């Protein structure tokens, strides 16, 4: 029996979220007195895979079939099921990101395994297997006990500290049966120059307090000097000030950057649901009673049109960009 961790990759590079989930999985394995193993699908250089050993994983099952270079939830589920069965994995761990959300429920049905999506801490394993997760958009916690033989957890990003040690992992090629995807990708057109919002470490986000699309230069300039992605509240996207792929919240993207800067956003619960897993939240709002301040690590009460240019200039100076 082992703990199996799904390691996300894109364009041959292991994704940032995987380091967290590897560290978490290694600790779960330690708690259970077993070893942690990873599974990687698609082409990734062997030295990059071996280096994952420093996050506590002993072995990487690598399925390097070309079909797996493009994500397809059904195909990935089939392959991971084969790896899990061959490795005798009793606990399977994903990041609760876009890929994890698509694969984990399918795998749960396939393996008849209990699933807790969105775990926020290590499971209690002294007596059974109980996993804590957020409910009601982070307003409460729920503790769920998984009783099935195989258990699946997906970990909310930014819930566990990345632990980097030393060591290398054994890279073991795995010969899986890979089905042809039912959906054929004809072309991939990536926006160049933009930092993808779901992957960004720093996000500058604007709300209705910005008054209109013509003022978005304020947000873009600050994002540019910080190397950040830009986001917005839902009304901003609804009013077509910004494209819908930038809208974060309950009905938009859920993100978990290291730093989220909210400018002219009131902090409605539906907005917070998409950003409250950010490590540090900075709120800039002219209303000292804005609800967002309650969720903020740092707050500036002030007019965005005065404050943002000053911060942008200060960052420029600090970075020698002025
Ligand atoms: C079912 C449902 C789902 C929803 N899903 C989402 C979602 O996914 N994401 C989302 O964002 N919302 C969502 N909403 C909408 C949400 O309830 C709020 O209405 C929305 O988040 C408010 O957007 P806002 O903060 O930009 O605007 P407002 O609520 O209008 O707030 C603007 C803020 O800007 C401040 N401000 C004004 N001028 C300035 C200035 N010059 N400088 C600094 N601050 C200033 C104001 O004090 C105010 O706090 C949802 C609502 C429902 C009912």
Automatic annotation (TrEMBL):
Keywords: Electron transport, Transport. SMART domains: ETF. It holds the Pfam family ETF_alpha. Transmembrane segments: none annotated. Residues 3-195 form the Electron transfer flavoprotein alpha/beta-subunit N-terminal domain. Gene3D superfamilies: HUPs (3.40.50.620), TPP-binding domain (3.40.50.1220). It comes from the Bacteria. InterPro entries: DHS-like_NAD/FAD-binding_dom (IPR029035), ETF_a/b_N (IPR014730), ETF_a/FixB (IPR001308), ETF_asu_C (IPR014731), Rossmann-like_a/b/a_fold (IPR014729). PANTHER family: ELECTRON TRANSFER FLAVOPROTEIN ALPHA, ELECTRON TRANSFER FLAVOPROTEIN SUBUNIT ALPHA, MITOCHONDRIAL. Belongs to the ETF alpha-subunit/FixB family. This is Electron transfer flavoprotein subunit alpha/FixB family protein. It comes from Niastella soli.
């Amino acid at each position: 029996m082992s703990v199996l961790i799904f390691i996300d990759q894109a364009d041959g590079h292991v994704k940032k979220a995987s380091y967290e989930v590897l560290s978490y999985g290694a600790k779960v394995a330690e708690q259970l007195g077993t070893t942690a193993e990873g599974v990687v699908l698609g082409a990734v250089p062997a030295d990059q895979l071996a280096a994952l050993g420093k996050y506590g994983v002993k072995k990487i099952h690598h399925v390097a079939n070309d079909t797996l270079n493009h994500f397809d939830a059904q195909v990935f589920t089939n392959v991971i099921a084969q790896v899990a069965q061959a490795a005798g994995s009793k606990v399977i761990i994903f990041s609760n990101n876009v890929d994890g959300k698509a694969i984990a429920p399918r795998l749960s049905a396939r393996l008849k395994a209990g699933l807790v999506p969105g775990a926020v801490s290590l499971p209690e394993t002294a007596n059974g297997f109980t996993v804590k997760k957020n409910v009601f958009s982070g307003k409460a916690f729920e503790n769920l006990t998984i009783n099935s033989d195989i258990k699946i957890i997906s970990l909310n990003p930014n819930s566990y500290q990345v632990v980097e040690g030393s060591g290398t992992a054994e890279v073991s090629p795995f010969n899986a049966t890979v089905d042809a995807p039912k959906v054929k990708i004809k072309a991939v057109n990536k926006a160049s120059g933009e930092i993808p919002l779901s992957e960004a470490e720093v996000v500058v986000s604007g709300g209705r307090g910005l008054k209109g699309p013509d003022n978005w230069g304020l947000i873009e300039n600050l994002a540019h000097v910080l190397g950040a992605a830009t986001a917005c509240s839902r009304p901003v996207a609804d009013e077509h000030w910004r494209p819908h792929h930038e809208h974060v919240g309950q009905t938009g993207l859920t993100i978990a950057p290291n730093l989220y800067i909210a400018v002219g956003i009131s902090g409605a619960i539906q907005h917070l649901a998409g950003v409250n897993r950010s490590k540090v939240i900075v709120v800039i709002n002219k209303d000292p009673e804005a609800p967002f301040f309650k969720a903020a690590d740092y707050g500036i009460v002030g007019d965005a049109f005065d404050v943002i240019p000053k911060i942008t200039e200060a960052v420029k100076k600090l970075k020698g960009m002025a």
